[in-house]
Amino acid sequence: xxxxxxxxxxxxxxxxxxxxxxxxxxxxxxxxxxxxxxxxxxxxxxxxxxxxxxxxxxxxxxxxxxxxxxxxxxxxxxxxxxxxxxxxxxxxxxxx
Length: 96
What we know:
Blueprint: E1 2-7, E2 10-17, H1 24-29, E3 40-49, H2 51-66, E4 72-74, H3 78-86
Parallel strand pairs: 2-3, 3-4
Antiparallel strand pairs: 1-2
């Protein structure tokens, strides 16, 4: 399970960001990410991540950019960084 907690202009993801948690119910909650108020996505409380979670983050990034907005990822877990490097998409992640 993954939760989204809003703290002013920052969202905190808590839990597993995996194929099992990135589903349609989560997508509805994740619409918060595509908001002019949100500028930071804190990943410090993400306990597990897989390729589906990484793909979801890239999709969020794409949707935010289509709205001519910016979002930065902070406190990225080493597991996610390794996965992004292996997948050759680490340069796309807006790490702050």
